[in-house]
Amino acid sequence: MRQDVSRKPEPYLSVSDLVVRFPTEDGIVHAVEGVSLSVARGKTLAIVGESGSGKSVTAQAIMGLIDRKAASVSGEVWLDDEELVAMPDDAVRRLRGLKMAMIFQDPMSSLHPFYRVGAQLIEAALVHQSLSKSDARSLAIEMLRRVGIPGPERRVDDYPHQLSGGMRQRVMIAMALINSPALLIADEPTTALDVTVQAQIIELIATLQAASDTAVILITHDLGIVADVADDVVVMYGGRLVEAAPTQRLYYHPEMPYTLGLLTSVPRMDRERADRLDPIPGNPPSAINLPAGCVFFPRCTYSDRVPDGACASRNPDLIATEPGHLVRCHLPSEERRQIANNVLGSLVGGPG
Q: Confidence class of residue 268 from pLDDT cuts 50, 70 and 90?
Protein backbone atom coordinates (compact mmCIF):
# COMPACT_ATOMS: atom_id res chain seq x y z
CA MET A 1 0.00 0.00 0.00
CA ARG A 2 1.28 3.42 -0.93
CA GLN A 3 2.41 5.72 1.82
CA ASP A 4 0.73 9.03 2.59
CA VAL A 5 2.50 12.13 1.34
CA SER A 6 2.29 15.47 3.08
CA ARG A 7 2.75 17.62 0.00
CA LYS A 8 0.62 16.84 -3.02
CA PRO A 9 1.39 17.89 -6.61
CA GLU A 10 -0.93 20.23 -8.48
CA PRO A 11 -4.05 18.42 -9.76
CA TYR A 12 -4.35 17.73 -13.47
CA LEU A 13 -8.09 17.21 -13.07
CA SER A 14 -10.11 19.23 -10.59
CA VAL A 15 -13.88 18.80 -10.15
CA SER A 16 -15.79 21.34 -8.08
CA ASP A 17 -19.42 21.09 -6.91
CA LEU A 18 -20.50 18.82 -9.77
CA VAL A 19 -24.27 18.32 -10.02
CA VAL A 20 -26.00 16.03 -12.54
CA ARG A 21 -29.80 15.68 -12.61
CA PHE A 22 -32.08 13.83 -15.01
CA PRO A 23 -35.74 14.88 -15.33
CA THR A 24 -38.09 11.89 -15.67
CA GLU A 25 -41.85 11.31 -15.57
CA ASP A 26 -41.47 10.06 -12.00
CA GLY A 27 -39.42 13.05 -10.82
CA ILE A 28 -35.88 14.42 -10.83
CA VAL A 29 -33.10 11.84 -10.63
CA HIS A 30 -30.41 13.35 -8.39
CA ALA A 31 -27.56 11.33 -9.85
CA VAL A 32 -24.67 13.49 -8.59
CA GLU A 33 -25.04 16.14 -5.89
CA GLY A 34 -22.18 18.58 -5.27
CA VAL A 35 -19.20 16.27 -5.80
CA SER A 36 -15.68 17.73 -5.64
CA LEU A 37 -12.47 15.79 -6.26
CA SER A 38 -9.05 16.06 -7.88
CA VAL A 39 -6.16 13.95 -9.16
CA ALA A 40 -2.61 14.82 -10.24
CA ARG A 41 -0.39 13.38 -12.97
CA GLY A 42 1.11 10.06 -11.95
CA LYS A 43 -1.45 9.56 -9.17
CA THR A 44 -4.44 7.25 -8.84
CA LEU A 45 -7.76 8.28 -7.31
CA ALA A 46 -10.26 5.52 -6.55
CA ILE A 47 -13.98 6.30 -6.48
CA VAL A 48 -15.83 3.58 -4.56
CA GLY A 49 -19.43 2.91 -3.65
CA GLU A 50 -22.34 0.59 -4.35
CA SER A 51 -24.20 0.49 -7.65
CA GLY A 52 -26.30 3.63 -8.06
CA SER A 53 -24.05 5.79 -5.90
CA GLY A 54 -23.19 8.13 -8.79
CA LYS A 55 -19.69 6.90 -9.63
CA SER A 56 -20.20 6.23 -13.33
CA VAL A 57 -22.32 9.35 -13.89
CA THR A 58 -19.53 11.41 -12.33
CA ALA A 59 -17.07 9.86 -14.80
CA GLN A 60 -19.41 10.44 -17.74
CA ALA A 61 -19.86 14.08 -16.74
CA ILE A 62 -16.07 14.55 -16.58
CA MET A 63 -15.76 13.03 -20.05
CA GLY A 64 -18.58 15.18 -21.43
CA LEU A 65 -20.71 12.12 -22.22
CA ILE A 66 -23.90 13.38 -20.54
CA ASP A 67 -26.57 14.40 -23.07
CA ARG A 68 -27.37 18.01 -22.16
CA LYS A 69 -30.80 17.64 -23.79
CA ALA A 70 -31.68 14.89 -21.32
CA ALA A 71 -29.93 16.16 -18.19
CA SER A 72 -28.68 19.26 -16.42
CA VAL A 73 -24.99 19.47 -15.52
CA SER A 74 -23.52 22.22 -13.35
CA GLY A 75 -20.33 22.89 -11.42
CA GLU A 76 -16.81 23.03 -12.80
CA VAL A 77 -14.54 20.40 -14.33
CA TRP A 78 -11.00 21.66 -14.95
CA LEU A 79 -8.74 19.48 -17.10
CA ASP A 80 -5.27 21.00 -17.04
CA ASP A 81 -6.18 24.65 -17.68
CA GLU A 82 -9.48 24.10 -19.54
CA GLU A 83 -12.97 24.15 -18.01
CA LEU A 84 -15.13 21.44 -19.60
CA VAL A 85 -18.68 22.01 -18.32
CA ALA A 86 -19.07 25.33 -20.14
CA MET A 87 -17.11 24.14 -23.17
CA PRO A 88 -19.01 23.43 -26.44
CA ASP A 89 -19.62 19.74 -27.14
CA ASP A 90 -17.42 19.65 -30.23
CA ALA A 91 -14.48 21.11 -28.27
CA VAL A 92 -14.89 18.49 -25.52
CA ARG A 93 -15.11 15.80 -28.20
CA ARG A 94 -11.70 16.82 -29.51
CA LEU A 95 -10.22 16.36 -26.03
CA ARG A 96 -11.64 12.85 -25.61
CA GLY A 97 -9.05 10.30 -26.61
CA LEU A 98 -6.36 12.97 -26.79
CA LYS A 99 -6.10 14.46 -23.29
CA MET A 100 -8.55 12.18 -21.50
CA ALA A 101 -9.82 8.67 -22.17
CA MET A 102 -12.10 6.15 -20.53
CA ILE A 103 -12.13 2.36 -20.19
CA PHE A 104 -15.67 1.05 -19.85
CA GLN A 105 -16.68 -1.96 -17.79
CA ASP A 106 -18.10 -4.02 -20.67
CA PRO A 107 -15.63 -4.27 -23.57
CA MET A 108 -18.01 -6.41 -25.62
CA SER A 109 -20.51 -3.56 -25.83
CA SER A 110 -17.77 -0.94 -26.29
CA LEU A 111 -15.97 -2.71 -29.15
CA HIS A 112 -17.84 -2.85 -32.46
CA PRO A 113 -18.53 -6.53 -33.18
CA PHE A 114 -18.38 -6.10 -36.99
CA TYR A 115 -14.89 -4.53 -37.15
CA ARG A 116 -11.52 -6.07 -36.46
CA VAL A 117 -9.86 -4.81 -33.28
CA GLY A 118 -6.96 -3.42 -35.29
CA ALA A 119 -9.30 -1.33 -37.44
CA GLN A 120 -10.85 0.15 -34.31
CA LEU A 121 -7.45 0.97 -32.83
CA ILE A 122 -6.32 2.51 -36.12
CA GLU A 123 -9.43 4.69 -36.28
CA ALA A 124 -8.81 5.93 -32.71
CA ALA A 125 -5.25 6.90 -33.65
CA LEU A 126 -6.14 8.60 -36.94
CA VAL A 127 -8.75 10.84 -35.27
CA HIS A 128 -6.08 12.65 -33.24
CA GLN A 129 -2.76 11.96 -34.98
CA SER A 130 -1.41 12.79 -38.43
CA LEU A 131 -0.38 9.26 -39.41
CA SER A 132 -0.51 7.15 -42.52
CA LYS A 133 -2.68 4.04 -42.27
CA SER A 134 0.47 1.92 -42.32
CA ASP A 135 1.98 3.84 -39.39
CA ALA A 136 -1.33 3.72 -37.54
CA ARG A 137 -1.44 -0.06 -37.98
CA SER A 138 2.11 -0.36 -36.66
CA LEU A 139 1.11 1.76 -33.66
CA ALA A 140 -1.94 -0.45 -33.08
CA ILE A 141 0.25 -3.56 -33.07
CA GLU A 142 2.69 -1.91 -30.67
CA MET A 143 -0.14 -0.94 -28.31
CA LEU A 144 -1.46 -4.50 -28.33
CA ARG A 145 2.06 -5.66 -27.46
CA ARG A 146 2.30 -3.10 -24.64
CA VAL A 147 -0.91 -4.31 -23.03
CA GLY A 148 0.33 -7.89 -23.06
CA ILE A 149 -1.63 -9.49 -25.90
CA PRO A 150 0.43 -12.37 -27.33
CA GLY A 151 1.03 -12.46 -31.07
CA PRO A 152 -0.18 -8.88 -31.68
CA GLU A 153 0.73 -9.06 -35.40
CA ARG A 154 -1.89 -11.80 -35.72
CA ARG A 155 -4.40 -10.63 -33.12
CA VAL A 156 -4.66 -7.17 -34.71
CA ASP A 157 -6.85 -8.76 -37.40
CA ASP A 158 -9.13 -10.63 -34.97
CA TYR A 159 -12.74 -9.70 -34.31
CA PRO A 160 -13.79 -8.99 -30.68
CA HIS A 161 -15.66 -12.31 -30.37
CA GLN A 162 -12.42 -14.17 -31.09
CA LEU A 163 -10.80 -12.78 -27.93
CA SER A 164 -11.31 -13.75 -24.30
CA GLY A 165 -12.88 -11.28 -21.86
CA GLY A 166 -9.49 -10.37 -20.42
CA MET A 167 -7.99 -9.83 -23.87
CA ARG A 168 -10.93 -7.66 -24.94
CA GLN A 169 -10.38 -5.53 -21.86
CA ARG A 170 -6.70 -5.22 -22.79
CA VAL A 171 -7.76 -4.03 -26.25
CA MET A 172 -9.93 -1.37 -24.59
CA ILE A 173 -6.94 -0.24 -22.53
CA ALA A 174 -4.82 -0.10 -25.68
CA MET A 175 -7.50 1.97 -27.42
CA ALA A 176 -7.76 4.36 -24.47
CA LEU A 177 -4.00 4.88 -24.34
CA ILE A 178 -3.14 4.91 -28.05
CA ASN A 179 -3.03 8.74 -28.10
CA SER A 180 -1.17 9.01 -24.75
CA PRO A 181 -3.89 10.88 -22.81
CA ALA A 182 -2.84 12.50 -19.54
CA LEU A 183 -6.04 11.38 -17.78
CA LEU A 184 -7.39 7.81 -17.82
CA ILE A 185 -10.74 6.92 -16.24
CA ALA A 186 -11.29 3.19 -15.69
CA ASP A 187 -14.95 2.46 -14.93
CA GLU A 188 -15.26 -0.96 -13.25
CA PRO A 189 -12.59 -2.35 -15.61
CA THR A 190 -12.54 -5.80 -13.98
CA THR A 191 -16.22 -6.47 -13.26
CA ALA A 192 -16.76 -9.39 -15.68
CA LEU A 193 -13.33 -10.95 -15.22
CA ASP A 194 -12.10 -13.73 -12.96
CA VAL A 195 -9.94 -12.88 -9.97
CA THR A 196 -6.62 -13.72 -11.63
CA VAL A 197 -7.36 -11.59 -14.70
CA GLN A 198 -8.65 -8.78 -12.47
CA ALA A 199 -5.26 -8.58 -10.79
CA GLN A 200 -3.49 -8.60 -14.16
CA ILE A 201 -5.63 -5.75 -15.52
CA ILE A 202 -5.13 -3.59 -12.42
CA GLU A 203 -1.38 -4.25 -12.52
CA LEU A 204 -1.31 -3.42 -16.24
CA ILE A 205 -3.01 -0.06 -15.70
CA ALA A 206 -0.54 0.78 -12.92
CA THR A 207 2.45 -0.21 -15.10
CA LEU A 208 1.29 1.88 -18.05
CA GLN A 209 0.55 4.78 -15.72
CA ALA A 210 4.09 4.72 -14.34
CA ALA A 211 5.53 4.76 -17.86
CA SER A 212 3.45 7.76 -19.00
CA ASP A 213 2.87 9.72 -15.77
CA THR A 214 -0.87 9.41 -16.36
CA ALA A 215 -3.50 10.59 -13.89
CA VAL A 216 -5.85 7.65 -13.24
CA ILE A 217 -9.36 7.54 -11.81
CA LEU A 218 -10.35 3.99 -10.89
CA ILE A 219 -14.08 3.51 -10.36
CA THR A 220 -15.16 0.40 -8.48
CA HIS A 221 -17.61 -0.97 -5.94
CA ASP A 222 -14.88 -3.15 -4.44
CA LEU A 223 -12.53 -1.59 -1.88
CA GLY A 224 -10.49 -4.78 -1.93
CA ILE A 225 -8.91 -4.12 -5.33
CA VAL A 226 -7.73 -0.55 -4.77
CA ALA A 227 -5.57 -0.90 -1.65
CA ASP A 228 -2.33 -1.46 -3.52
CA VAL A 229 -2.84 0.93 -6.45
CA ALA A 230 -4.72 4.03 -5.26
CA ASP A 231 -3.09 7.05 -3.65
CA ASP A 232 -6.43 8.51 -2.52
CA VAL A 233 -9.98 7.22 -2.21
CA VAL A 234 -13.33 9.01 -2.34
CA VAL A 235 -16.46 7.20 -1.19
CA MET A 236 -19.79 8.02 -2.83
CA TYR A 237 -23.28 7.20 -1.64
CA GLY A 238 -26.62 8.47 -2.89
CA GLY A 239 -24.91 10.74 -5.41
CA ARG A 240 -22.84 12.47 -2.72
CA LEU A 241 -19.26 12.28 -1.59
CA VAL A 242 -19.42 10.96 2.00
CA GLU A 243 -15.72 10.41 2.77
CA ALA A 244 -12.37 11.14 1.14
CA ALA A 245 -8.85 10.43 2.39
CA PRO A 246 -5.44 9.06 1.44
CA THR A 247 -5.83 5.33 0.89
CA GLN A 248 -3.90 4.13 3.93
CA ARG A 249 -5.78 6.44 6.28
CA LEU A 250 -9.17 5.47 4.85
CA TYR A 251 -8.46 1.76 5.22
CA TYR A 252 -7.15 1.93 8.77
CA HIS A 253 -9.03 4.96 10.13
CA PRO A 254 -12.42 5.21 8.37
CA GLU A 255 -14.91 7.55 10.05
CA MET A 256 -18.11 7.47 7.97
CA PRO A 257 -20.32 4.50 8.96
CA TYR A 258 -20.95 3.71 5.28
CA THR A 259 -17.22 3.43 4.59
CA LEU A 260 -16.86 1.20 7.63
CA GLY A 261 -19.66 -0.97 6.26
CA LEU A 262 -17.91 -1.31 2.91
CA LEU A 263 -14.67 -2.32 4.61
CA THR A 264 -16.28 -4.97 6.79
CA SER A 265 -18.07 -6.39 3.74
CA VAL A 266 -14.77 -7.17 1.99
CA PRO A 267 -13.49 -10.76 2.43
CA ARG A 268 -10.18 -10.71 4.33
CA MET A 269 -7.61 -13.46 4.82
CA ASP A 270 -6.66 -12.08 8.23
CA ARG A 271 -10.11 -12.48 9.78
CA GLU A 272 -10.62 -14.92 12.63
CA ARG A 273 -13.85 -16.02 10.97
CA ALA A 274 -13.12 -15.82 7.25
CA ASP A 275 -16.47 -17.47 6.46
CA ARG A 276 -18.48 -14.57 7.88
CA LEU A 277 -19.08 -11.21 6.22
CA ASP A 278 -20.94 -8.24 7.66
CA PRO A 279 -23.20 -6.84 4.93
CA ILE A 280 -24.67 -3.34 5.17
CA PRO A 281 -28.37 -3.72 6.07
CA GLY A 282 -31.07 -2.43 3.72
CA ASN A 283 -30.77 -1.08 0.19
CA PRO A 284 -29.31 2.08 -1.38
CA PRO A 285 -31.78 4.99 -1.67
CA SER A 286 -33.71 5.89 -4.80
CA ALA A 287 -32.04 8.77 -6.63
CA ILE A 288 -35.54 10.19 -7.23
CA ASN A 289 -36.51 10.11 -3.56
CA LEU A 290 -33.38 10.75 -1.49
CA PRO A 291 -33.73 10.98 2.30
CA ALA A 292 -34.28 14.49 3.65
CA GLY A 293 -31.32 14.26 6.02
CA CYS A 294 -28.20 12.10 5.77
CA VAL A 295 -28.48 9.90 2.69
CA PHE A 296 -27.18 6.94 4.71
CA PHE A 297 -29.59 7.44 7.63
CA PRO A 298 -32.09 4.66 6.75
CA ARG A 299 -29.29 2.05 6.81
CA CYS A 300 -27.05 3.47 9.55
CA THR A 301 -26.90 1.50 12.80
CA TYR A 302 -25.43 4.45 14.71
CA SER A 303 -27.98 7.20 13.96
CA ASP A 304 -29.61 6.73 17.38
CA ARG A 305 -26.45 8.20 18.93
CA VAL A 306 -27.09 11.58 17.28
CA PRO A 307 -29.43 13.83 19.32
CA ASP A 308 -32.57 15.60 18.08
CA GLY A 309 -33.03 13.31 15.11
CA ALA A 310 -30.53 15.33 13.07
CA CYS A 311 -29.68 12.35 10.84
CA ALA A 312 -33.28 12.18 9.61
CA SER A 313 -33.79 15.90 9.07
CA ARG A 314 -30.47 17.56 8.19
CA ASN A 315 -27.86 16.69 5.58
CA PRO A 316 -24.44 16.72 7.30
CA ASP A 317 -21.73 18.95 5.85
CA LEU A 318 -18.55 17.48 4.40
CA ILE A 319 -15.92 18.53 6.93
CA ALA A 320 -12.20 17.97 7.40
CA THR A 321 -11.49 15.71 10.36
CA GLU A 322 -7.74 15.60 9.58
CA PRO A 323 -5.69 17.25 6.82
CA GLY A 324 -6.80 15.59 3.59
CA HIS A 325 -9.52 13.56 5.34
CA LEU A 326 -13.11 14.67 4.67
CA VAL A 327 -16.17 13.11 6.32
CA ARG A 328 -19.93 13.69 5.98
CA CYS A 329 -21.48 12.54 9.27
CA HIS A 330 -23.36 14.02 12.25
CA LEU A 331 -21.55 11.83 14.79
CA PRO A 332 -18.79 13.64 16.71
CA SER A 333 -15.31 12.85 15.40
CA GLU A 334 -14.15 11.10 18.56
CA GLU A 335 -17.21 8.86 18.57
CA ARG A 336 -16.74 7.97 14.90
CA ARG A 337 -13.16 6.98 15.59
CA GLN A 338 -14.13 4.91 18.60
CA ILE A 339 -16.76 3.05 16.57
CA ALA A 340 -14.21 2.32 13.83
CA ASN A 341 -11.62 1.14 16.35
CA ASN A 342 -14.13 -1.19 17.99
CA VAL A 343 -15.33 -2.68 14.71
CA LEU A 344 -11.94 -3.01 12.99
CA GLY A 345 -10.23 -4.01 16.21
CA SER A 346 -12.48 -7.08 16.38
CA LEU A 347 -10.82 -8.33 13.18
CA VAL A 348 -7.36 -9.87 13.22
CA GLY A 349 -5.07 -7.28 11.61
CA GLY A 350 -7.35 -4.37 12.53
CA PRO A 351 -5.98 -1.20 14.14
CA GLY A 352 -6.86 -2.44 17.61
A: low
